[in-house]
Structure formats: structure tokens, C-alpha cells
Amino acid sequence: MLGLGIFIFAFLAQSPAFGQIAIFIYAIAAFIWHISSRTTFTMAVMALGLVLFASIRSDVTLAGTFAIYAFLLLIVGTLTLWREVRSEI
Q1: Where are the domains of the chain?
Q2: pLDDT digits (tens, 9 = 90+) for 8-54
Q3: How many alpha carbons lie under 13 Å from residue 80 in its C-beta half-sphere?
Q4: What is the pTM of this model?
Q5: At 1, is the secondary structure helix, strand, or coil?
């Protein structure tokens, strides 16, 4: 639910910087509240789907913005997965 809210908010803002700040805030929340890496990877897949949707609509700017979001979410997902694996050892 949080991920969907971030995507809707970023979509409405249409600002790459605003979306990047929202993802940074999500990353901090993911580490504080131990949000599963699966959630973050799911959001990254959603962002990739939005890249496809924007590409079909020929909106190159929006596709590039969501590609950046997907990349950042993959980084956050990798870091949270690393945290999960490290805590199991």
C-alpha cells in the first residue's frame, strides 16, 4: 500500500527530484521498520511496468523518470535483502 502511494504521489508530482526524495524516505523507512525486500522488489517491478506503459504512450520523459525510480528501488531492495541475509547469519 505504501509503495502504491509513493508511485501515485510521484506520478502526480511529475518531478524526478520529488520521486527520488520519496524513494529515499522509503529507503530509510525500510531500514527502520524492517520492510521486506520483497516489497521493494515488487515496487521496482511496478516501476518497470510503468516504464513500459509510458513507452507505449510515447511519453519518453515519464518513461525515463520511472526507469530511474526502478533503478533506485532495485538498489534499495538489494540493500534490504543484504540486511535480511546478514541478520540470519
Answers
A1: 2-88
A2: 666 655 678 888 888 999 999 999 999 999 999 999 999 999 999 99
A3: 24
A4: 0.84
A5: coil
pLDDT tens-digit profile of 60-87?
Answer: 988 998 999 999 999 999 999 999 999 8
- The residues, ordered by sequence, that sit 6+ positions from 64 with a Cβ below 8 Å of its Cβ are none
Given a contact cutoff of 8 angstroms between Cβ atoms, the answer to whether 39 and 56 are in contact is: no
The owner of cell 500500500 is 1
Amino acid at position 85, single letter: V
Q: Which residues contact 26 (CB under 8 A, 6 or more apart)?
A: 2, 3, 6, 40, 76
Cell numbers found for residue 41: 522488489
Cell output for 11: 506520478
